[in-house]
Amino acid sequence: MKKTRIFILTIIAIIICTLLYTTSKMGETSPEEKIIVATSIMPQKEFIEAVGGDKVKVIVMVPPGANPHTYEPQPSQLRELSKARIYFQIGSGIEFEKTWMERLKEQNPNIKIINCSKGIKLMKEDPHIWTSPRNAIIIVENIYKALIEEDPNHKEYYTENKDKYVTRLKKLDEQFNQTLTGKQNKKILVYHPAWTYLCRDYKLEQITIEREGKEPSPQTLAKIIQEAKKDNIRIIIVSPQSNKQSAQAIADEIGAKIVTIDPLAENYIENMEKMLQTLKSI
């Protein structure tokens, strides 16, 4: 009888300890509990992590330094994608998504596709919607809506994170407004036409060296040089993925400085602040 009582008390003690341990662990997020999501480009990674924080793990299909016009996913990336619950699609017509989106869905038929361009007025000639802070705010809101739908238990957490990040984006928008309002020279010379939305929202004019993905002809180059001299352009903006030969030829001819700004950089706000500082000096 005594042994039976000891056995029962031991079992009760084990159950109580197990319950206490389980309770102490409630609310902790282990790596296994993170929502695995995927997206196409690095700027989206910052947006998703700004909202999702430690509740999400982000797979980026086009890695740093790769060209979304030509990149092909590696087998290891496709294996990772098969575990993702959400794909945050840019939805603006970038070449990677036009080429690969259907194949990515075949790789993971259950993945939920979120079009992050919803609510943005698209321009066919430029898929780089994120290069305007005003569009970035809309993209972040679309990400937020998808995360609270997928994981409603953490709505308060996502809301707090989203509000903090959107506040930073609104401050960035105001800085662009203050810097560019009343500026007489509204023209910027760029190699790749990646800044169309920025120019639209802040009333700038983008002169591009590359036209329809092709290097300029000698005649086009001469025309650009003539226009740049006339407008006293002293800065040429290029991306790391660009062939800088044509830009350098123009810079040598007009005495301009070449500034490298990557529209695909992950550190979005820091990168856009660099763009803002560049525009101050045009």
Question: Which features characterize this protein?
Answer:
about 280 residues; alpha/beta; globular; about 50% helix; 10 helices; single chain; 8 strands; Rossmann fold
Characterization of this structure:
The protein is α/β, with parallel strands linked by helices. It has 2 domains: 32-177, 3-Layer(aba) Sandwich (Rossmann fold), CATH 3.40.50.1980; 182-280, Nitrogenase molybdenum iron protein domain (Rossmann fold), CATH 3.40.50.1980. Helix content is 50%, strand content 12%. The chain has 10 helices and 8 strands. It has helices spanning 2-25, 42-52, 75-81, 95-107, 133-150, 155-180, 196-201, 218-230, 245-254, 268-280, and strands at 35-39, 56-60, 86-89, 112-115, 187-190, 205-208, 235-238, 257-260. The strands form 2 sheets. Strands 2-1-3-4 form a 4-stranded parallel sheet, sandwiched between helices. It has a 4-stranded parallel sheet with strand order 6-5-7-8. Helix 9 (245-254) links the parallel strand 7 (235-238) and strand 8. Helix 5 (133-150) runs antiparallel to helix 6 (155-180), helix 6 runs parallel beside helix 10 (268-280) and helix 8 crosses helix 9. The relative contact order is 0.11. The model is unreliable at 17-31 (pLDDT under 50).
In a nutshell, what does this entry contain?
The protein has 282 residues and is α/β, with parallel strands linked by helices. The chain has helices at residues 2-25, 42-52, 75-81, 95-107, 133-150, 155-180, 196-201, 218-230, 245-254, 268-280, and strands at 35-39, 56-60, 86-89, 112-115, 187-190, 205-208, 235-238, 257-260.
